Amino acid sequence: MQFFLLNLLSGFIFASVFLSILSVAWVILELVAQWMVFVKAGEAGWKSLIPFYNDFVFYRICWDTNFFWVSLVLSLIRQFLDRDDAGFFLSIVVLLLGLVIAVIDFLFCCQLARAFGKGMGFTFGLFFLRPIFMMILGFGSARYVGNNSYLP
Question: CA 119 → CA 105, 113, 116, 122, distances in Å?
Answer without folding.
Answer: 16, 6, 9, 6
